[in-house]
Every structure is written in structure tokens, then in C-alpha cells.
From TrEMBL:
GO CC terms in record: cytoplasm
Keyword Nuclease: no
PANTHER family for the chain: FI04487P (PTHR43807)
Annotated transmembrane regions: none
Name assigned to this protein: Aminotransferase
UniProt cross-references to InterPro entries, sorted A to Z: Aminotransferase_I/II_large, Kynurenine-oxoglutarate_AT, PyrdxlP-dep_Trfase, PyrdxlP-dep_Trfase_major, PyrdxlP-dep_Trfase_small
Alphabetic keyword roster: Aminotransferase, Pyridoxal phosphate, Transferase
UniProt record similarity statement: Belongs to the class-I pyridoxal-phosphate-dependent aminotransferase family.
Residue ranges occupied by any Aminotransferase class I/classII large domain in the UniProt entry: 28-378
Entry-linked Pfam families: Aminotran_1_2 (PF00155)
Cofactors, names only: pyridoxal 5'-phosphate
GO molecular function: kynurenine-oxoglutarate transaminase activity; pyridoxal phosphate binding
Amino acid sequence: MQITSKQPNIGTTIFTVMSQLAAETGALNLSQGFPNYNCSPKLIELVNHHMKNGMNQYAPMAGIMPLREAIAQKTFDLYGISYSPNDEITIVSGCTEALYAVMTAIIHKDDEVIVFEPAYDSYVPCVELNGGKAVYVTLTPNNDFAIDWQVVKSKITERTKAIMLTTPHNPTGKCLTQSDINSLAEVLKDTNIFVVSDEVYEHIIFDGRKHLSPAMHPELKERTFVCGSFGKTFHTTGWKLGYCLAPKELSAEFRKAHQWITFSCPTPFQYAFADFLKEPDNYLSVTQFYQEKRDKFINWIKDSRFEWIPAEGSFFQMVSYKNITDESDYDLAVRWTKEIGVASIPISVFYANKIDNKILRFCFAKDDEMLERAAERLCRL
Ligand SMILES: Cc1ncc(COP(=O)(O)O)c(C=O)c1O
């Protein structure tokens, strides 16, 4: 039997490729975005506790109420925005599901979605599998990956259905500023365009910056789907639990999609996060934890021949290797994984046309020993 592929150009993701290569060669794996340390023992205890207490059957489709309430409280306390736990917060299987469910809910055939590239790899497939088309706004190192809102405006057509944002951004580490958000509001004024805001790194933000969500802007909140995750914040990427915040009418359509994708998410994990979120230090301390990791990593590579601008957020540091070689970033990432034993991700894979700016992305969500050993090897280049 043969399938006529709906995704003929999609192969194995670069993250799988590089992680596999790192495993085969014994390289230090600074490629894929997940921590190599464990989550809080308290969280594990909480999951165990709720499992032992019989919380093992289907959760409600939208998520258990105590977790939705805890998210509502945290979102209000941190960002001053209110979402009703009843009909504006939905628990999903990670941000990946949130993004897919949003696109399923809003896209009709041939609708366009504005995507900034370099782009996280699931965005465009989510758009295309739902019959839409990605319209790219290309960000480059020439202006430090800043968004030119005039360019964004010029890409809007009568078919534009949504604009996809990531803050803090993977892979660039850039964060939206208030000026970006004001420009976004200006561009979207008098349109029916939705905003899909991927905020999985909301707590991983540096140098005193404050996370700014488009939903904090009163004119944008009504059109914004905020897609969040507990994976990055709590070192639990394998638990695949996240959420979507959106006004009532938007959430209603979102939930229709969610109910046919997963219907509901694992119950004991939801109860565990509901308890864990009651103590704000559990998420507030994450910022300092990663600030130290970013600072240590860039300090350890300071004598290398790489060039970089410190990441503003996320747990990724991009570095330019143009002073070392002009090899393609993909070939170099593969070669250095094998030869020096440090795996990274080439930035070209995040561009539709594989633009090669001679930049690699290193994930610093790794224990200090691994980071220091990797940095030592990078300094020898
Ligand atoms: C920008 C971005 N969005 C979404 C995800 C996926 O999040 P989750 O694991 O919650 O599905 C990732 C994971 O790497 C990411 O970097």
C-alpha cells in the first residue's frame, strides 16, 4: 500500500538527527532543547501522590479545574490579564498540541499565516496540514533579528488569517518589546487577524527583562491565543503538558479541535502542577536558574573565536562561527559533533530556504559540568 504523503518534504527533524548522532558518537548534546537534569522531587512526589489517590481516569476535556484556576491566578499576578478558568483556559498535551489545535480551529483552505523565520519547526506544518499557507517574514543577523513592522504590514493580504509569534524566541533568544507589541497592535487594527503567541520560555528571560505577551495589550487580547507549556519551566518536557489561553469564543473553537486531537491530558500530572503552581517561587526561581546558566556558558566560551550577542531569553545561545570557517552550518554541526564531540543545531534549518548565516545554536539547559566541558572544546577551535 502507498500513501500519497500530505507532507512530502518533511523528513526526520534535525533535533532527532543531531540527538541520534550525539548518542552514536558520545558527543556532548547541546543540540535538542531539553534539560539533562531532573525536575523537582516535589513534583514527582505530587504525581505519585495523585496516582496513588486514584486520580487515574480521564480528566475533563478542558483540564481539571484546580489547574485552570492556578494558571488564571498566575497569569493575573504576573501579567495583569484575566482569563476565566471556565471557558478561556484549556489544558493540552504541550504547546505542540496547542499550536496544532489553534491552526485546526482557525484555518480554512488557502488562508495565510505570517510566520517569522527562523521559525520553530512545527509552525509551518501546523499551518499546511490544515490547508493554509505560510507567508514568511525573514529575520536576519544584520539587524540582530529585529522585526521590521513595515515588512510585516506589506505581507498582509485579504487571506491573512493569523500572525505567529514566539517570545522569548527559539532559536534567536529575542524577546518582544513594548514597541513591537504596539506596532503589532497598529498593524492589526481594523483587521480580523488572529495572533498566535508561543510563550513556552516565558520564565526564561534575562538581564532584568520582563516577559511581555501580546495579550497584555488590550486591543490584542481579544484576538490572541497564548500557547504555553510546563515542560520548559519545570524541566518536565517529557510530561507534555501545556495550555492555551484565549477569549471565550476563541477558546470554544479551540476546544472543539482539542477534543478530537487528545480529548484530555493525563490526570495525575495535572493535579501535580495545580499543587506546584500554588507556590510562586517554583516558577519565579526559574529565571535566576537560567540566568546563571546563560552567564556561565558565555563566560566559558569568552576566549573562543565565536561571536555572539547574549540571548535575551530562552535556553539557547546562538553563536557565529564566521571567524573560524566558511563551511555550511549543517555540515559543520555534523562534523563538530563527530570530531570535537559537541552537538549543536545549524540555524539554516529554521529557514524555509535554508539561509546559511554561519550560526549555530547551543542549548545551555545542561548541567554545569557538561556545559564547561563543551565550552572547553569550543575554545580549542
Ligand atoms: C518555541 C517552542 N514552542 C513549542 C515547543 C514545544 O513545546 P511542548 O514540549 O510543550 O510541546 C518548543 C520545544 O522545543 C519550542 O522551543
